[in-house]
Amino acid sequence: MEPDVSIETSCMIRIAVLPIGDVPSTLLRDYHSMLLRHCTIPLSTISSFYTEHQKSPFAHQPWETGSLRFKLVLGGAPPSPWEDFQPHRKILGVIGICHCPSSPDLDLVIDQFNAAWRGYSSVLVQRCFAFSPGDSQLEDTKKRENLVLFPPSDRSAQELHLQTMMQDISASLLMEFEKWVLQAESAGTILKTPLDSQATLSSEEVIKAKKRRLARAQKTIGDYCLLAGSPVDANAHYSTALELARLTADYFWYAGALEGSVCALLVDRMGQKDIAIEDEVRYRYNSVIVHYRKSFIQENAQRVSPLTFELEATLKLARFLCRRELAKEVAELLTSAADGAKSLIDASDKLILFVEIARLFGTLGYQRKAAFFSRQVAQLYLQQENRFAAISAMQVLAMTTKAYRVQSRTSISNQSLSNVSIEEWRKLCSTHFIC
């Protein structure tokens, strides 16, 4: 499972932001915060960087109103086994952050950057942003591919430079998406997930797999249309995928295509508040949840399960509906998700699930329920054999004290906290607070 998911997550391009060389942590956070201001790039601003080398497969690209959206992942993320199923899980771009005064050798910087981005097989675009270069670095005329120098300047000038570079990255990604879709349409592509059987298929199963490939290809093309900021094109491909997946009983990919269609609907109607749209989202997402549940295969249960997708879909719908007047409906969704935790195998999935449930209950104003699930989070932290997890557990427990009207039996200084053992932490976490 992934934290902080929403229906719109499907249209976000994942970019890894990696420190290259020695970058002071305060500066890294500052550079990252500057990047975060440019997570949405209007398509209308990238025309000077965009070159159409062939007829675009995005026939309904909304150049005047559309945009590309980014999810910037500081430090990157490990590859997901579900990247074929949901391309937004791929790291599609890498931005390196270099602090020139700390890394004066630009050749070494580029070598380190190349080694870093090549660790992601899915990367389509890469740039290394080198901040505060000295005079000697600025005067260095050697051309280094993908290295962009940000000369010392005031904040507004750097922001403008950064915005321009993000527009360049956006155009490059859009052209890469066009290439991918054109190749997929002409040559076809084989798409698998961990749910697919690893055993040798019978002739009948081979025929079925070939039919399913068409639906999966259409669904994935729809996903890339979404990433490219073209919801109308995405919806056309999703409609085809849904029909084909229904005919072949490919429930998992049917649910994925239906999820994509909801995202396309919301992106296309961005900013509109319409009860009819809300009802449509509710109807489709309930169907998404049902079809993820139907895709459960008993023989795969110990190896892999679609349960995390069912639970993520439940959380997405709950987040979409999360407001006071719908509190009862949202609470039912969250309770259903909490019940699913019993069947989760991975402890980190449980941790993410309980964190998200606690956050959403908190948003609703259900503080005691939020506190209850926060304590579940603390218990999961305590199962990890390290001091940092124990400290996290104590911090989470401290956050719940107000909701439970808890009083501390003793006051513990920060200095003493750093010296206790994990076992002592466990005792503290179980006895330090009383209701």
UniProtKB/TrEMBL annotation:
Entry-linked InterPro entries: Trs120_TRAPPC9, Trs120_TRAPPC9_N
GO cellular component: trans-Golgi network
Trs120/TRAPPC9 N-terminal domain mapped to chain residues: 9-195, 202-267
Stored Pfam families: TRAPPC9-Trs120
Highest taxon of source: Eukaryota
PANTHER family xrefs: TRAFFICKING PROTEIN PARTICLE COMPLEX SUBUNIT 9
Protein name, UniProt field: Trs120/TRAPPC9 N-terminal domain-containing protein
